[in-house]
Amino acid sequence: MVSETSCCVVRGINVGEGAASRDNCARLRDELWFKGREWFQDKAYTMPKDEALIAELPGPTYTFTSTGKMLVESKADMKKRGMRSPDLADAFLLTFACNDRRKVERYRRPVVKRSAWAA
Predict the structure, then answer these.
(1) Which domain holds residue 56?
(2) Of 39, 21, 19, the residue nearest 29 (C-alpha)
(3) Is residue 115 domain-resident?
């Protein structure tokens, strides 16, 4: 139960958009995977032991686009290699999506006005 004093902000995240704060990542998905990687490299964390999550994190490989941007392997390409979709890892990495307050506005859904005849 959420108390009256606590606040939960839920935002839709489109990981197919361009990276929010890094010019060296092709998409937001790529940026989140690399933010997660750096979080683990800093070793300043504690997290519950979750074998399924731990097994998914090293799954995707990465490459570079022709413009030099980092690109994490797609779920379709992972499937071709016989790997499962890293759903738990993706969910974990979404926790890094709103750390950059400068770009939070980009995740808000725009208000679209429609006329009555288009309904």
Answers:
(1) 1-107
(2) 19
(3) no
Strands of 1-119 (E only): list them. 62-64, 70-72
Residue 73, domain member (yes or no): yes
Confirm whether 45 is domain-assigned.
Answer: yes
* Cα–Cα nearest to 74, from 30, 32, 12, 39: 30
Give the count of domains, the chain. Answer: 1
The residue among 113, 115, 116, 96 whose CA lies nearest residue 104 is: 96
**For 75-105, how does the pLDDT look when each residue is reduced to its tens digit (9 = 90+)?**
999 999 999 999 999 999 998 887 554 444 4
Task: Name the pTM for this structure.
Answer: 0.71
Taking a C-beta distance cutoff of 8 angstroms, is the pair 107, 99 a contact?
Answer: no
